[in-house]
């Protein structure tokens, strides 16, 4: 049995090289940028009005209310073929070019029309008011996004603004999920005695989706060697094969033996963590294989602690890492354990600082305590923790 740190090192040392591809901007959401991106224009590209109103000289409005003559109008997309003189105003729309001579825009709501070409300005304006100046957001040649940045919806808009219609991104790994167990029934079925619904497939697929990975489910296989072998061989065509169930030492735990017969080199099969001790990791050519226990909480913990780290490494996306922060524990942990524990907890900001409260659970199959948690409290091996002591917490929400 190896430590969690050793297990993580073994996994990360066997990651295949990252792959880069070109994606259309419309398909880049959630992907990880593989290049530094620079703007090809100034943003805004010209001095533009931030409001519907009138382009004015702020000097003319110092003694407001004042009357000004309106000499024209500029709409968005039109050239500003005017030069504003003292005592004059130009009607202007949001996004339109500010004309020469104007140094402010007064909002339409702060004016009153007197005739077709005379307005009363009811209040003054500051120099620069309601004007977005050229290049105040971004200069031509300025870096927009760093390589390694996950592309969000807001980043998509910026990339479009600088004309980046195609972008280099790291390829997402192809991930297959295979669930095993004769006791499992579909979530649409009412479990009979000795049966449980298959929650692990849904939980795993959701965890991968949160990481931006569209995993493929290979379905559920009963504890039958021939059927399991066929599904394993199918899964070995992917970059990551994640199996859940059948990795312990019972008579029907046949996953590890099946993997070996399929040519998988087993790197380790026990890790000193709780929950999640019966955790198998192996490799077959380009494919990394993760054999997880069937208990839902253990499956969730291993995926967050180990598989997420592997996906972060594969996609070069540091932003996908789960943050680990310290907080004062609200109650003591008096039962030391020989393995490192990941306890469900609730982390919150209080008057005295960050505080974490352990959530009472009922073992590695407890989905209810997991639903109510926003972190895992990391308890080192053979350790008791008095109330108020600072502990490490891995955020999971």
Topology:
Blueprint: H1 4-12, E1 20-24, E2 32-33, E3 37-38, E4 48-49, E5 53-56, E6 66-74, E7 88-92, E8 104-107, E9 111-115, E10 118-121, E11 131-132, E12 143-145, H2 153-161, E13 166-170, E14 175-180, E15 184-185, E16 196-197, H3 200-210, E17 216-221, H4 225-235, E18 240-244, H5 255-261, E19 265-268, E20 273-274, E21 280-284, E22 287-292, H6 296-315, E23 324-329, E24 340-350, E25 353-358, H7 367-371, E26 375-379, E27 390-395
Helix pairs in contact: 1-6, 3-6, 4-5
What does this 3D model show about the protein?
The chain contains 7 helices and 27 strands. By secondary structure, it is of the alpha/beta class. The protein folds into 4 domains: 4-16 and 173-320, MoaB/Mog-like domain (Molybdenum Cofactor Biosythetic Enzyme, Chain A, 3-Layer(aba) Sandwich), CATH 3.40.980.10; 20-43 and 137-170, Alpha-Beta Complex (Molybdopterin biosynthesis moea protein, domain 2), CATH 3.90.105.10; 48-132, Molybdopterin biosynthesis moea protein, domain 3 (Molybdopterin biosynthesis moeA protein, domain 3), CATH 2.170.190; 325-395, Beta Barrel (Beta-clip). The strands form 7 sheets. A 6-stranded mixed beta sheet has the order 8-5-7-6-10-9, with no helix packed on it. A 6-stranded mixed beta sheet has the order 17-14-18-22-21-19, sandwiched between helices. Strands 23-25-24-26-27 form a 5-stranded mixed β-barrel. The longest helix has 20 residues, at 296-315. 36% of the residues are buried.
